[in-house]
Design brief:
The chain contains 7 helices and 11 strands. The strands form 3 sheets. It has a 7-stranded mixed β-sheet with strand order 5-4-1-6-10-7-11, sandwiched between helices. A two-stranded antiparallel sheet has the order 2-3. It has a two-stranded antiparallel ribbon with strand order 8-9. A hairpin with a 2-residue loop joins strand 2 and strand 3. The chain has a single domain (5-229), classed as Spore Coat Polysaccharide Biosynthesis Protein SpsA, Chain A (Alpha-Beta Complex), CATH 3.90.550. Helix 5 crosses helix 6 (190-198). The chain has 230 residues and is α/β, with parallel strands linked by helices. The structure holds cytidine-5'-triphosphate and magnesium ion (MG). The site of cytidine-5'-triphosphate has 21 residues, from strand 1 and helix 3.
């Protein structure tokens, strides 16, 4: 039996750290919108369908200027997100019914490759839960609200969590349901939810240092430099 795989691509953020009037997922990278790069990587991957989550009033723009224009035929739904990332994820999960695995991806990570997506799909079928990430390069210091250093975790055990974050559908949906019922407001990451509320082991998969999230203005230059070198 073929097991259905759904990508949920998040593009409902406001991009406040980018300081741009246009949300960062629609900014141009070498002439094409940031969001179009990750959609292309998923389109060419082994996922069966893509659910695109966008901001209020942006659905028609996305349909016309991105999905139709670049012929992303695997996009089956374009839905409205919510106020926080985890609200957008939860809406995506509700829309994804009838699937076996989901890959949750930040539309602001244009450097993701089809190869890494396919690797994660193979891995999640074996593990139930795995995410893209990389070991940190700098030492990370945990500080207090007063910016006083509180403790230093061992560098070799500290990893950056990237996306896609991939889970068995029932596991991630039940975990999110519990997080939302508990009014947990600290959620910034899907693995965090599944670890806290699903009690499942989650495996890190090295996805490369290029898989950055476009967050602040200099990230546009960094992303373009990577794309030029491909
Ligand atoms: N996102 C979303 N819905 C939200 C907030 C974020 O779908 N309510 C998406 C963003 O569009 C982005 C991804 O989640 O693709 C990662 O979030 P982040 O980098 O924090 O993006 P923004 O929230 O847009 O940026 P900022 O935090 O600087 O405002
Ligand atoms: Mg944000």
């Amino acid at each position: 039996m073929k097991r259905r795989v759904t990508a949920i691509v998040l593009a409902a953020g406001k991009g406040s750290r980018m300081n741009s009037s246009v949300p960062k997922q629609y900014l141009s990278l070498l002439g094409k919108p940031v969001l179009s790069y990750s959609l292309k990587a998923f389109e060419e991957s082994n996922v069966d369908e893509i659910i695109l989550v966008t901001g209020r009033g942006e659905q028609e723009y996305c349909r016309r200027e991105i999905v139709q224009k670049y012929q992303f035929n695997k996009v089956t739904q374009i839905i409205e997100g919510g106020a926080e990332r985890y609200h957008s994820v939860y809406r995506g999960l509700l829309a994804a019914e009838e699937t076996e695995y989901v890959l949750i991806h930040d539309g602001a990570r244009p450097l993701i490759t089809t190869q890494v997506i396919n690797l994660l799909i193979e891995k999640v079928k074996l593990t139930r839960a795995c995410i893209a990430g990389m070991p940190v390069k700098d030492t990370i210091q945990l500080v207090t609200e007063e910016k006083e250093i509180a403790s230093t975790p061992l560098r070799r055990l500290v990893w950056m969590a990237q996306t896609p974050q991939c889970f068995e559908y029932n596991l991630v949906k039940a975990s999110y349901q519990k997080a939302i019922e508990s009014c947990d407001k600290d959620i910034t990451d899907d693995a965090m939810v599944v670890q806290r509320y699903g009690g499942e082991k989650i495996i890190m998969v090295e996805a490369g240092y290029e898989n950055i999230k476009v967050t602040t203005p200099e990230d546009i230059m960094i992303a373009e430099a990577f794309l030029v070198h491909r």
